[in-house]
């Protein structure tokens, strides 16, 4: 892209002044780079009184934690912005508002969420937001239903699938979820104490066949416009509010992938609880995570079903009983993808603070080992779990 340049703080301020939509753009005077992810620059833009007013985000042409040896498409900024714009149409309460985006500069301007906190950090600290799981289920139901065949005209759906083709970012997911953790790959990272368990993943035929099936569906099932990376680090929360951000992995894929990724991150936090609160106090926090998972799924399923019964445009898909059958298949997909999220966050390249911030070494190893075994277990038995209460029982069964 001929006009692309990497923003400095001054560039970000000027960009926000031009495209932030403020009545007095000159009031924006300062920027602070706050990005802690692997792919982007993120600037908070402050006014003369030191109040953060707006955010500028720019995609980098490489993976930040690796460097220029791992190049990335800048088109992901367009895909992220357009995914969030599309999701905002259907769930404005729970999607960050994109005010402007520029595909040439791979940059966007978005609403400031300084009144919110990243949900992962709050979960690690034991701060409970009673509405969050319900609101996440609502967000997923609205965005996934309204971009699915249940709602879109077939011509529109096919055009949308083409518009949101995201091969480079999908390849990252395909590698990090379904390939690397199950092979001896240089990107993998895990404690030496767990090497035998990791080797066992590579040698488990039933597991690898189940993972192959999940990957095949990720390749081929264009069911709805996914967020594509809806983990607790991509969600902001405040009292009574939840907002999804960071959708550069957005594409049309299997609905269960988004559901499973969300559930998987709640389970990662579940596995980490003994490391943050000790064995005795962890029990209550763990129980809360299981109830969050239950609330998330039930809200999603109930809301998706209600939308399907009143807004489905296709005669065949609207036939009584079909949406319930469809959601059974989504549920079993979600369990499998949940399991791959647990494995890739413990064995693969991208880890999570829930586990990595556990200070006591032996406890951290035990918690990571628990997540590996739980993920493996769920992948293999996904088609044997019929509902969320059975799922919770199986999780409890694994400790």
Question: How would you summarize this macromolecular structure in one to three sentences?
Answer:
The protein is of the alpha+beta class and 399 residues long. Helix content is 53%, strand content 14%.
Question: Can you walk me through this structure?
Answer:
The protein is globular. The chain is 53% helix and 14% strand. The chain has 13 helices and 12 strands. It is an alpha+beta fold and 399 residues long. Strands 1-2-3-7-6 form a 5-stranded antiparallel β-sheet, with helices on both faces. It has a 3-stranded antiparallel β-sheet with strand order 8-10-11. A two-stranded antiparallel sheet has the order 4-5. A hairpin with a 3-residue loop joins strand 4 (62-63) and strand 5. It folds into 2 domains: 9-111, Phosphorylase Kinase, domain 1, CATH 3.30.200.20; 117-397, Alpha-Beta Complex (Aminoglycoside 3'-phosphotransferase, Chain: A, domain 2), CATH 3.90.1200.
SS-based class: alpha+beta
**Residues in β-strands, percent:** 5-15%
Residue ranges: pLDDT <50 for 5 or more in a row?
Answer: none
C-alpha Rg, in Å?
21 Å
How are the SSEs ordered, and which strands pair?
Blueprint: H1 9-19, E1 28-33, E2 40-47, E3 52-59, E4 62-63, E5 67-71, H2 76-90, E6 98-102, E7 107-111, E8 117-118, H3 119-125, H4 132-146, H5 154-163, H6 167-179, H7 195-202, H8 205-220, E9 224-226, E10 235-238, E11 241-244, E12 251-253, H9 255-311, H10 322-347, H11 353-356, H12 361-381, H13 388-397
Antiparallel strand pairs: 1-2, 2-3, 3-7, 4-5, 6-7, 8-10, 9-12, 10-11
Helix pairs in contact: 2-4, 3-9, 4-9, 9-10, 9-12, 10-12
């Amino acid at each position: 892209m001929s006009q692309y340049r990497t923003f400095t703080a001054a560039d970000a301020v000027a960009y926000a002044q031009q495209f932030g939509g403020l009545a007095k753009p000159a009031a924006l005077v300062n920027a602070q780079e706050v990005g802690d992810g692997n792919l982007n620059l993120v600037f908070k833009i402050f006014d003369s009184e030191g109040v953060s007013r707006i955010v500028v985000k720019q995609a980098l042409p490489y993976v930040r934690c690796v460097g220029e040896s791992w190049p990335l498409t800048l088109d992901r900024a367009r895909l992220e912005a357009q995914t969030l714009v599309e999701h905002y149409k259907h769930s404005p309460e729970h999607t960050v508002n994109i005010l402007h985006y520029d595909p040439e500069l791979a940059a966007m301007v978005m609403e400031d969420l300084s009144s919110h906190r990243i949900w992962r950090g709050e979960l690690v600290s034991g701060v409970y937001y009673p509405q969050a799981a319900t609101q996440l289920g609502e967000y997923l139901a609205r965005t996934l239903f309204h971009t699915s065949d249940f709602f879109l005209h077939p011509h529109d759906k096919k055009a949308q699938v083409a518009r949101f083709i995201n091969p480079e970012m999908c390849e990252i997911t395909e590698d990090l979820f379904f390939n690397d953790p199950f092979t001896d790959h240089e990107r993998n990272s895990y404690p030496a104490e767990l090497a035998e368990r990791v080797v066992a993943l590579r040698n488990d035929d039933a597991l690898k066949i189940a993972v192959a099936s999940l990957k095949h569906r990720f390749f081929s099932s264009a069911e709805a416009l996914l967020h594509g990376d809806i983990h607790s680090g991509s969600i902001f929360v405040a009292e009574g509010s939840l907002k999804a951000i960071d959708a550069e992995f957005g594409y049309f894929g299997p609905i269960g992938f988004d559901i499973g990724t969300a559930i998987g991150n709640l389970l990662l936090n579940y596995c980490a609880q003994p490391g943050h609160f000790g064995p005795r106090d962890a029990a209550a926090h763990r129980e809360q995570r299981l109830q969050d998972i239950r609330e998330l799924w039930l809200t999603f399923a109930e809301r998706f079903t209600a939308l399907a019964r009143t807004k489905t445009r296709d005669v065949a898909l609207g036939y009584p009983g079909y949406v319930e059958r469809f959601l059974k298949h989504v549920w079993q997909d979600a369990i499998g993808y949940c399991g791959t999220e647990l494995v890739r966050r413990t064995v693969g390249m991208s880890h999570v603070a829930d586990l990595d911030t556990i200070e006591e070494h032996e406890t951290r190893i035990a918690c990571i080992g628990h997540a590996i075994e739980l993920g493996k277990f769920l992948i293999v038995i996904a088609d044997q779990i019929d509902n969320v209460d059975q799922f919770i029982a199986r999780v409890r069964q694994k400790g």
